[in-house]
Structures
1.
Amino acid sequence: NAEWLKLLDQFSEHYYGIRNAISHLATIDCIFSLAAVAKQEGYTRPTVLEEVRQIVIKNGRHPVIDILMGEQEQYVPNSTELHGDGQRVMVITGPNMGGKSSY
């Protein structure tokens, strides 16, 4: 019991440093996992331009739906164009279970 309390005291002295290290490791793990899936599935990274305020997605696909549908090729990719000085909002409507949340 005394040894356990001693361990807890020592741990508490370094708690914030350990917590921060674990948080950074978790972030790195997440980034590497996303990079591995992106490479495996042939995804491309976005191009970020400082001078242009727009989002352009050509034939965007939802990665989870894409994997679940597999070889069926029933998933329809979606394209989107939003501009800071033009069209800024899109309203997506449709029936329940019609794919709005995976757009």
2.
Amino acid sequence: QMMCRELAANYLATYEERSITLNGLKMLDVIYAQNYASIHDFIAGELLENKKDASGAVFSLLPIALRHSITSIVIDFNKTDDTPPAVNDFPAKVDGSYILSDDRLVLHKESPINVLFKPVHYDILYSQKYIEK
């Protein structure tokens, strides 16, 4: 989990001058709207803060940082029925457009990275066969 947070944080710190957008808004404007004075304050206060749930920001940034699509399989151990686990693809799209993107976004979609997501913990998995189990 910390490795994923660090990858997302390193991407933001390294490429903060890029035209990164979230729902059409510049990432820096989104960060300022959350009362952070800088991108580095956001990294320290959100992405690298262990007691905060940063999964939304991490899963949004990782596909851009890794240049790879990510499929998240959500395991809910409190479920009482036989419904399959929720599956989310990142980067997320709304009306055919990526919610989060940068000016040089190129993804390798033919083989997404699979992430097993459990409450307060996630693991990167490499095998689709394992996910299907």
3.
Amino acid sequence: MATTETSPLLDDNDQTASPLKGEPSKYPLPSAPSESALSAPSQRRSSISDSWKWYHTAIVLCIRLIIDFVFKNPLVFYLNYQQGLLIDYMQFGYILVAAEIGCIFAIFIGDFNKRVLRTEERIMETYLVIAGLANIAFPALSYFGITLDGELYVIVWCCVMRFIVGLSFANISAASIKFAAQYVPNASKITSIIAVLHYSWPLSTAINILAGYLILDASWMSVFFYSGVLLIVTGLFASFFFKCCPLAPPDLAAPDRGGRQRVPSAVINASEPEEVEMEMDDEEDDNRSGLRVLFTDGNSLLIIFVSFFMTFRSRSIYIVTSSLWMEGTFSLDASMVGWTTLSVIIGEVLGLMVMSTVSHKFELWKSAAGTLVHQLVFGALLFVLAAIYGNDISLAAALILTGLLTMGHESFYVVQQSNAIHYAPLPRLKFLLLLGERMAQESASIVALFLTVSLWYLWAENAVLLWSIVWIAGTFMESFILFIYRSEPTIKQSFVDEV
């Protein structure tokens, strides 16, 4: 029996209101559908968003925290691990590159994740355990004193382990963003939830303070062992958690026999078709067709292109401002290098605070423009100081500028991931576009790993000046992202605004 109550999304005096947006629509409502049918999708969306609690955010944040630390820790203690493995800096660069290749490869196993693991929860749980085992095994040859045919076997072994870590990192990062974004009550708040999840990055940087002391008081291998154990424990706990605290399925309606997600026809006829977000899971569409769609879509290619330069800039910043500049110019030991990462943490936290609190109040292009201006201003300031003083800027000034540079990068990174959610060519390709972003990012990381250290030693006393110029050029390349905002996002605000 149809309900006699008025739909909460319809004005009593305006029967042309959109059932998804609560405002007048150019598509008039037909008289046949019942009000209960029209309000079903909004009620469904409300149920979905209501099932997400603060502790779901906390567990996803913890998952990202530990995998972020494991992935980027070798960048902070580049010289310490290189010396511990008894190899030169270029050979250790090969090991770090293996992790980047693992991230790149992740996009090509999307079909496996879709057909075998199926859900974002299982993707995160599975790859946490896999990454933990690989991280524990990373220093195994050095720990047991297995030399075999010299350093070659050590390099190959470590490359394989880091490849697995990189593969896991890419899948967990993309899955966690897509997982949380589909439970927001309003599409305009996607950027805010992404910013909240990105707190894992500065928090994981803070763990490097403890890592520095572990390296000095125990050994460099203990960092890999303890973080690997923590990954496995986190994966097992996450599996237990999601079973005890289940979430409502994020689809708008149950799939039909063909595997397609559908909504009532009345709702489709009563609203703008492109504003109804449906996760298409057609069994006839394989991962390869998804890649073909992705790499023939102009906005997707632009997002991937910009991600390359964004990450080349950020990776070189991390390597220069942590290990090379701090240890080379200021002669800091491992524990003090760990403490200097507080400047990075503060900068990233400030950037995320801004994005999480005000991003939903502005259009996405305004957030992008603001972060680009920030990066350009402080990149230019570093250029001026480096032109005058070379590498010998005071330690305090170096730390302040490092924090400001990372603040700008982290803010822009959040915008980029929000771009992937809003401008994916199809809703079902959001996860794949996030992996595409990661592919470009880690390709840039490979270039940064090979160039940063060698150029630092080549330019010697003027290395900071060189990299300040590179970082300014990187900001200009990032500015190309502004072109995507000329088109409408594929995912519009289609949920009920919550007061």
